[in-house]
Amino acid sequence: MAKITQVLQTPTFKKAVKKLHKNQKADLDKAIRELIEDPLLGQQKKGDLYFLRVYKFKMLKQLTLLGYTYEDGTVTLELMALGSHENFYRDVKNIV
User: What is the CB-side half-sphere exposure of residue 47 using CA atoms within 13 A?
Assistant: First the structure.
């Protein structure tokens, strides 16, 4: 597996990150580093969201979902969505 050379963020993802506190951002940065090391950690979704992978991690002891796409050919990790499980998938469908 090739090393990630590019990490992109959608405007929706950037907006969600701006609202985070410093200690939440540290948990997010750790999760992103883990995805850079192994982009296949997240679970591949099916159906309408077939293009999406979701990585679940703890942010201040709360389960948080990080939605992203990974293209092996272009070695790009695109961070698309961030949030708790409630309405996460509905919101992702509204993004795309």
Answer: 5
